[in-house]
């Protein structure tokens, strides 16, 4: 499939009415021949600087906790909505005492660190860089600050990778950089490490480097479990396109890199290594999940939540697989990546506020439309404040300071419904590919690597048997600069 105007970047202000309206405070949409700050302010640099600026704003939002609220009981950090796992786990997971993750047994019920190996290494390196003098409060502050600096580096990596993944749509990465939920949740936990590795993997796939894609996905899976789902996405895409060699290369790279990181700990500290997996399996339903909402509303503790969550996840993934093999055009990699990670989140037993970070870069690539993105972000911001106010309510005793259970249930519903809304819009784009803004210039799959423009060899529906293409002909393609509105 030939593409038009390959050298010209798509300007969102000429395709997206929300982006155009938002640009007014900078002087309005860019013209066709406008230049952005000469040669220095390239899209990569602008997006990276904006992302780092939003990250810094998120750090400022945590100031009340940094100054005092982390250390004055649970209530204050919840009422100020500035909670972070990082300073607390410095002490309770043995880093303050110099214990080695996975090898040294922890005091209390947890026994071992409950994080995947690469995240544990990240936490340990941060503890090495944390100054040793002063009170434990000061050391916890410094540990959070060191981690924030390392996570800021991950933010820069994510921004650069998202910009470069869609060559002609670099400005779509501003959706990630300007996401309110990104700023609010970036320093709650260590998720940005896995997200940076996943973003690097998707960039490698978009450039046809299938082995390197696998290497990065294997490393990302060694930091967080969800990136392995992208291999399932590639399985059905490569099945439809007949690209089994590329899929095999990706799986090989992922398996080798995951084993390189995990095998030493598996051999020498098996009990510590398996803690993450047993903890994930055994933990009950928890905050933010649809199962907690059902449990609270029905009064049923849902003791079989593991079975329900696993069954729903498998059902949703099967549905995504069928969608992939029956859609009129092969879905884009980013679309399916977003859907499968969203399915995992929606069906999970727990939804921590920082899990939204997993989806933000994928959403920027899957559905780069500001209206839909901001609707989803509004629901996530409601949930962010809802969970902290609910925890404030549950820890305030007779004061009842915060949000009662009924209000928290509405916050969970806001998260669930807005995430489902964005999923529905992505599914609509797959079923009606002419509505997909990324494909309106004649592109097939800019982040698809070897799948971009490939012919189908296996489909399940008559609608998908028509030539690859239901793609518009060259004469029908929307020219660069033409407004494309829903």
Automatic annotation (TrEMBL):
GO terms for molecular function: hexosyltransferase activity. InterPro entries: GT87 (IPR018584), UCP010361 (IPR016570). The chain crosses the membrane at residues 40-60, 142-163, 175-205, 211-238, 250-270, 306-327, 333-352, 373-391. Residues 465-486 are annotated as: Disordered. Its main location: membrane. It is found in: Cell membrane. Residues 465-474 have a biased composition (Low complexity). The keyword Cell membrane applies. This is Membrane protein.
């Amino acid at each position: 499939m030939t593409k038009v105007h390959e050298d010209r970047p798509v300007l969102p202000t000429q395709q997206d009415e929300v982006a155009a309206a938002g640009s007014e405070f900078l002087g309005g949409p860019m013209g066709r021949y406008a230049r952005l700050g000469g040669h220095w302010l390239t899209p990569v640099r602008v997006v990276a600087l904006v992302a780092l600026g939003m990250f810094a704003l998120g750090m400022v939002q945590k100031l009340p906790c940094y100054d005092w609220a982390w250390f004055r009981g649970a209530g204050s950090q919840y009422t100020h909505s500035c909670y972070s796992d990082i300073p607390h786990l410095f002490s309770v997971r043995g880093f303050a005492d110099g214990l080695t993750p996975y090898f040294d047994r922890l005091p209390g019920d947890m026994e071992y660190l409950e994080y995947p190996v690469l995240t544990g290494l990240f936490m340990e390196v941060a503890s090495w860089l944390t100054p040793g003098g002063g009170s434990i409060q000061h050391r916890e502050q410094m540990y959070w600050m060191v981690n924030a600096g390392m996570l800021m580096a991950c933010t820069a990596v994510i921004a650069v990778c998202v910009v470069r993944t869609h060559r002609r749509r670099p400005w779509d990465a501003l959706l990630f950089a300007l996401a309110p939920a990104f700023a609010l949740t970036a320093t709650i936990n260590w998720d940005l490490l896995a997200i940076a590795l996943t973003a690097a993997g998707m960039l490698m796939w978009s450039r046809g480097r299938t082995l390197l894609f696998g290497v990065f996905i294997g490393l990302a899976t060694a930091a967080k479990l969800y990136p392995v789902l992208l291999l399932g996405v590639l399985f059905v895409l490569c099945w439809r396109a007949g690209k089994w060699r590329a899929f095999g290369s990706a799986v090989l790279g992922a398996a080798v890199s995951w084993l390189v990181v995990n095998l030493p700990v598996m051999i020498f500290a098996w009990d510590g290594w398996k803690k993450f997996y047993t903890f994930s399996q055994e933990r009950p339903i928890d905050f933010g999940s649809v199962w907690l909402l059902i449990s609270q509303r029905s009064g049923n503790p849902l003791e079989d939540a593991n079975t329900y969550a696993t069954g729903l996840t498998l059902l949703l993934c099967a549905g995504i697989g069928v969608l992939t093999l029956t859609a009129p055009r092969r879905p884009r990699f980013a679309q399916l990546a977003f859907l499968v990670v969203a399915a995992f989140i929606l069906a999970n037993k727990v939804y921590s506020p920082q899990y939204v970070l997993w989806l933000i870069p994928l959403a920027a690539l899957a559905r780069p439309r500001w209206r839909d993105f901001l609707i989803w972000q509004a629901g996530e911001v409601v949930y962010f404040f809802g969970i902290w106010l609910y925890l404030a309510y549950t820890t305030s005793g007779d004061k009842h300071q915060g949000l009662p259970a009924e209000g928290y249930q509405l916050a969970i519903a806001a998260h669930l419904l807005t995430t489902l809304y964005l999923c529905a819009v992505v599914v609509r784009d797959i079923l009606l590919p002419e509505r997909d803004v990324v494909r309106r210039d004649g592109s097939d799959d800019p982040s698809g690597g070897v799948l971009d423009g490939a012919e189908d060899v296996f489909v399940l529906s008559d609608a998908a048997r028509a030539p690859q293409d239901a793609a518009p002909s060259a004469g029908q393609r929307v020219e660069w600069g033409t407004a494309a509105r829903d």
